[in-house]
Amino acid sequence: MTAMQMTVDAEGIATLTMDLADRPMNVLNEALMTPLAGYIATIESDPAIKGVIITSAKKEFLAGADIDMVFGITDPKLAFDVAEQLKKMLRRLELCGRPVVAALNGTALGGGLEVALACHWRVAINDPKAKFGLPEVKLGLLPGGGGTQRLPRMIGIQASLPLMLEGKELSAEAAKQQGIINELATDKADLLAKAKSWCLANPKPVQPWDDKKFKWPGGDSRHPAVVQMLAIAPSMATAKSQGNYPAVTNIMSCIYEGGIVDFESGCRIESRYFANLVVSQVSKNMIGTLWFQLNSINKGKSRPEGIPKAKTTKVGILGAGMMGAGIAYVSAKVGIECVLLDSTIEAAERGKAYSAGLLDKAIKKGRETPAGKGVFLDRIKATTDYADLAGCDLVIEAVFEDRAIKADVTKKTEAVLGADVVFASNTSTLPITGLAKAHSKAENFIGLHFFSPVDKMPLVEIIMGEKTSKETLAKGFDYVQQIKKTPIVVNDSRGFYTSRSFATYVNEGLALLNEGQHPRAIEMAGLKAGMPVGPLALQDEVSMSLSLHVMEQTRKDYAEEGKTYAASASEPVVLKMVKELDRPGKKAGRGFYDYPEAGTKGEKKLWPGLAQAFPLATEQMSQQEMIDRMMFAQANEAARCFEEKVVLTVADTNIGSIFGWGFAPHQGGALQFINAYGVAKFVKRAEELAAKYGPRFKPAALLVKMAAEGKRFE
Amino acid sequence: MTEAYIFDAVRTPRGKGKKDGSLHEVTPVHLLGNLFNALETRNRLDTSQVDDVVIGCVTPVGEQGADIARTAVLYSNWAENVPGVTQSRFCASGLESVNLAAMKVMSGQEDLVVAGGVESMSRWPMGSDGGAWAMDPRINEQLGFAPQGIGADLIASLEGFSRQDVDAFAVRSQQLAAKAWAEQRFAKTVVPVRDLNGMIVLDHDETVRGSTTVEALAGLKASFEQMGQMGFDSTALRKYTTLEKINHVHHAGNSSGIVDGAALMLIGSQAKGKQLGLKPRARIRSVAVIGSEPTIMLTGIAPAAQKALKKAGMSVKDIDLFEINEAFAAVVMKAARALDIDMDKVNVNGGSIAMGHPLGATGCIILATLLDELERTNKQVGLASLCVGAGMGIATIIERI
Predict the structure, then answer these.
(1) Cα distance from B20 to chain A (closest Cα, Å)?
(2) Cβ pair B25:A272 closer than 8 A
């Protein structure tokens, strides 16, 4: 069966319906483009056809380009040709002399929206779930189907820049407001009727850019107002991207240069920049990890097979602090009934109020209604009574990081629910196997490590204790997906995977400070490396007193286990900051930074006292040297975790690094960073760093082996 | 006085200066960037040793504005200490850059200078920068403003060049250019334009038509007749009082082509060349620039050439080859007549009528062409000259080492 059907009605209106076989969504691939090209030829040559409607038989209209195909291209000429081929086809369509209407029955993203933009009129069903946008930037690419040329000519340079630079996805209504969609319909019948009547009413439409009298909305790139805006656009963009994303630069180039030249030249310019991105390391990193690996995780690659999917209907949350309150929010959000328990009713209610606060914000932004808020909050029961846990099919504890307290709540829960209900601990540091000892059925005990703030962070690290069963893992995995987070599965180990690897970044920043590097230069290097926050600011967030607590705990545990404890490079700094200088971190208002008092406006500033506490060394390092240290420390630690089977798949390791602690997304994750650097090159550089800065940089044995065998992480 | 030497020269192919021209999709900064990179690689140049970069650009607005010389230096990742200046002497700008660079070196104040020019006429059309000469009525009137084409037709009328004479010259230009390309005579200097993927955008001069004939050209409509009749002719005739009527003979086929392109030349002292391992190809013997009557505008070549010859202590007979910019057919014919030179020595590989005239770059291009041809035919001395807007002329004499 061909992926596209054409029917022509009595009035000569041809309807092209996309329906790609064996795919949940239509994508622009050979199977779709070949029949489309054939139909365009038919339309061009058949005078009986008076108009064309393009629509889809699937729920979505067209999801975009075929990423598999794009990912496989390594020759820029091929990428250029692919883009040109698509554009030439769309060009023929818009110049066929008949009205062409996109009947958008659902989502049109990327190449899907580009097809629609090449039509003369766009009607969309006003379905709040349908999304419209050009999100290519999120995979390190740009719209290569003429999107960078048509959209600015349609809605103006200024309005189109953020849509492409941020890859914003709009609802049908918002897209109409922006002038991207022309008309809204109530349902499919209305959609097709509207599309048809537009065809009949506009027999000879001309695209604005093909009109001799065409004027750019808001002016072309020569217009003084646009010139002024273009002057600041790169600074605005790089303030966020740190120049790490060539797609951002290339998108701006397409739009800017497109505003100097004619439409056809603009299209070729777009193909050149597109080709440049397709073969770029950054897009390969991002597509490999944020598309293929993420999809494999979402499809349940790390979920044990043969266990039926379970839906959580009622979750008990122990501890209504930051984490517990956040877990309640994300659970209630997907309709799960929550019992939010704390030692006092005030604390429990405070936890519930957190959800109310978030809902109020959503109401302000028009994303929630007061009625919806009521229903939402009714799902959360704040309590101090363990008996209220009755009926829960999952319990998550988020109490203080103290073994005794955790053991206590575990036992109290078991007393009410029995031992068969899965019990999860949201610990970030304490080994699960140890905590499971408080439970009479350790196989039902698991770690669900959430990240703060829970409502924003996309990852949950699932930790397997020694005895945790497959069934328990499946239950945890399904719950994490139910609350729309991404699960990675790790084995029990100190700091698990994310906390342990993340710590190396902060550790390196503090080590640099201790060596007399300028604190601002350290922070800048972190940002330039692509990390969301500098290491010193991050340490302040985590709080140094907490770090000290963990260090002391670890030291104690090591002593008990008879292992030798080696102090990390950052330990003297933490000790000095907490014990000598009384600057424990952000919560106290003083750490590496001075923080404005809570409730007052103002910015954090590096504490001037750092100059005395950590005098500058005469030799100041290059930014690249600092960046290498920070990145190598993290990547090497991730590789060690992989080697030690703390984390089991490359996908989990990469996604965990980006979603868990914000490892530079343009690098495609901690292991992909090593791939892209070249494993052998990485090993060599790591050895150099080890010789200079200490054994923490010694490359993981696995990497040395891989380098020798010429292997990479697949 | 220090002598100034030419070490190397590079130029882009010239692309048709319209929206369907191949270089329309390339920014002027990138055109220069390609050449800066080529100059650096070809000469294994330590760019920090370059004292200055002088770039000619006649329409320095938009993306050619704000000192494109410095912009292109930084875009090309040359050493930060290399400055850049953009100047305009209209059509002579490319050669003006060379002459300024030579004079900088000769003065002893600078030792190594890059000279060149750029013009994306498709993206920033001639006249985009306005100018009081044409747009301020008081000045326009006082200077007797008329477009170049009127001046060219005026020259033809005064000299008695018929439509067939100028068309024959145009055909010659096309044929010589086509032959030169076929024999790869520009290979030493032409660097293909590549995009950021390294894909070639253009590797040949796009407007060459070796098969054109006088008969074919006869069909083209004179370009300046209508505007002449609207008033420019009478402005010209008020100055040229013995002429009754201007015979409008110039058209798109016998005038310089509107194209996009760029060129660069590396110029320095012998000592600097030695230090950096650069081989001098020619010495710049003398340079000259003059002003002439602005309405006819395009008669400055002969006086500029004479001035340069005098400075060099030479006569026309000492010159083995000439490159005279083919702004219009009549301009070159008139200059050859005024200097009494044999056409066999002039523009032997064709000129701007065939290959185009990217305003800011042409002067540098024709000097490079001259040097390549002197080397190819083992001749010694050459003179390059251009007529210049608002009545000026420029000339440069080079001698092979």
Answers:
(1) 8
(2) yes
Do A469 and A509 reside in the same domain of the chain?
Answer: no
Domain annotation covers residue A647: no
Domain limits of chain B? 5-124+256-400
Smallest Cβ–Cβ distance between A272 and the set B62, B123, B197 belongs to B197
Helices and strands, counts by H and E, chain A: 31, 19
CA distance B320 to chain A (A): 43
> For residue A656, is it within any domain?
no
- ipTM score assigned to the predicted complex: 0.92
B129 contact A CB<8A: no
Q: Which of B25, B123, B196 sits opposite A268 (nearest CB)?
A: B25
Instruction: Compare CB distances from B199 to A80, A260, A269 and report the shortest one's residue.
Output: A80
CA distances from B9 to B41, B280, B401 (A): 13, 11, 16
In angstroms, the CA A592 to CA B5 distance is: 59
CATH number, domain of A364, equals: 3.40.50.720
* Same domain for A519 and A456: no
Between the alpha carbon of residue A337 and those of residues A227, A317, A349, A369, A462, the distances in Å are 54, 11, 16, 20, 21
pLDDT tens for A6-33 read 999 999 999 999 999 988 999 999 999 9
What tokens appear for B199 in the block? 């894909």
Closest CA to A83 of A166, A248, A75: A75
Q: Are residues A100 and A47 in the same domain?
A: yes
Residue among A353, A358, A334 nearest A342 (CA)? A353
The answer to whether the CB of A142 falls within 8 A of the CB of A250 is yes
Shared domain check, A504 and A487: no
Q: What is the DSSP letter of B328?
A: B
Chain A nearest-CA residue for B196: A276
How far is it, in rounded angstroms, from Cα B329 to Cα B251?
10
Tell me which amino acid residue A97 is. Answer: G
Which tokens belong to B49?
């040793």
A199 domain-assigned: yes
Q: Is residue A476 part of a domain?
A: yes
Check whether residue A483 and residue A505 sit in a common domain: no
Domain count, chain A: 3
Strand duo A380-383 + A337-341: pairing: parallel
Residue with the two structure tokens 């891989």: A706
Where would I find the beta strands (DSSP E) of B161-281?
A: 193-194, 200-202, 259-268
Which residues on B lie below 8 Å from A277 (Cβ)? none
Q: Taking the complete model, does pTM exceed 0.90, yes or no? A: yes
Residues 6 or more apart whose CB falls under 8 angstroms from that of A350 comprise A320, A325
Q: Does B24 touch chain A (CB under 8 A)?
A: yes
Two tokens, residue A612: 């005395």
Q: pLDDT tens-digit profile of A647-685?
A: 999 999 999 999 999 999 999 999 999 999 999 999 999
Q: Could you tell me the residue range of the domain that residue A512 belongs to?
A: 498-622
Closest CA to B388 of B331, B311, B321, B314: B331
Has residue B309 got a pLDDT over 90?
yes
Please tell me which residue of chain A has the smallest CA distance to B64: A222
Low-confidence ranges of chain A (pLDDT < 70): 1
- One domain, residues A465 and A584: no
Gap between the Cα atoms of A449 and A442, Å rounded? 17
Question: B5-124+256-400: which CATH topology?
Answer: Peroxisomal Thiolase; Chain A, domain 1 (3.40.47)
State whether A238 and A370 are in the same domain: no
Domain with A220 in it: what CATH number?
Answer: 3.90.226.10
Q: Assess whether A483 and A589 both reside in one domain.
A: no
- Check if B75 contacts A (Cβ < 8 Å): no
Say if residue B68's pLDDT is above 80.
Answer: yes
Nearest Cα of chain A lies from the Cα of B123 at a distance, in angstroms, of 7
User: Whole-angstrom Cα distance, residue B398 to residue A170?
Assistant: 65
Domain boundary residue, one of A252, A279, A306: A279
Q: Single out the residue in A452, A476, A494 at which a domain terminates.
A: A494
pLDDT at position A367: 87
